[in-house]
Specification:
Structural class: alpha/beta
CATH architecture: 3-Layer(aba) Sandwich
CATH class: Alpha Beta
Number of domains: 1
Distance between the termini: 33 Å
Order of helices and strands: EHEHEHEEHEEEHEEHEHH
Strand order of the largest sheet: 1-2-3-4-9
Number of strands: 11
Number of helices: 8
Strand content: 15-25%
CATH topology: Rossmann fold
Oligomer: single chain
Helix content: 25-40%
Shape: globular
Largest sheet: 5 strands, parallel
Length: about 230
């Protein structure tokens, strides 16, 4: 069963849409800059009702709680609260995700934002020291499905991420190359990086045909934005 209809919901639907024993909770606050209490309340109400169904639930949280600049944001605090709520369930698996990339109209994703700003020649700022971890939504689905089917993530919190992060200036350069457009941007002396322990996901990747090589991010941007 799938709760939601967005990027993650569509990626997991082929496997779990007709599964009567597993609920993929892929509906909730999708904007990491969200601050409205009513938006957070809607996810809490839906999640609470879903947990009352008493089935095995897959919940998606965020790796941003490891980011010193975002750890105290309303969005991250909300996700921590939702993790605690899910932990009360008898059957669950919680997956923390970084920047997930795929075909989505959501303008709030990092890659959609960069694509829009660069392709429309709109000015923007680059945080010089910021690094972000990007992963293909299809790779998230492949890795998570394997872990769930093999009961390797039952009852725990697991990071699903690429083994390396990319500096935002380097990501902008990849977009410039693929789009053949010069970005109208300037650099700000700001930003931070943080480590994500995704050892289980990295170990699982080769088993499901996912290759996290040095071309991963470039191929990912080319796949969805070329």
């Amino acid at each position: 069963m799938i709760i939601g209809n967005g990027l993650l919901a569509q990626a997991f639907a082929p496997v779990f849409a007709d599964d009567a024993h597993v609920i993929v909770f892929a509906s909730g606050v999708s904007n990491s800059r969200e601050t409205r209490a009513e938006a957070f309340a809607r996810e809490r109400e839906l999640l609470t009702a879903t947990l009352e169904m008493g089935k095995f639930i897959l919940y998606f949280s965020t790796c941003s709680m490891h980011d010193p600049e975002l750890a105290e944001s309303p969005y991250v605090r909300h996700k921590i609260d939702m993790e605690h709520l899910v932990c009360s369930a008898a059957q669950k698996a919680i997956f923390r995700l970084p920047q997930v990339v795929g075909h989505t109209p959501n303008p709030n994703t990092l890659t959609n934002y960069l694509h829009h700003q660069i392709s429309t020649h709109s000015p923007f700022h680059i945080w010089q020291h910021a690094r972000r971890n990007l992963i293909d939504v299809s790779d998230v689905a492949s890795i998570v499905t394997h872990l769930v089917k093999n009961h390797q993530a039952d009852g725990v919190i697991t990071n699903i991420a690429c083994p390396f992060s990319i500096a935002i200036p380097d990501l902008v350069r990849i977009f410039e190359e693929i789009l053949d457009i010069h970005a109208v941007c300037d650099t700000v002396d700001a930003g931070a990086s943080y480590d994500i322990d995704a050892s289980l996901a990295i170990e699982t990747a080769p088993q499901v045909g996912v290759c996290f090589d040095q071309h991963y991010v470039r191929n990912l941007i080319r796949k969805y934005y070329a």
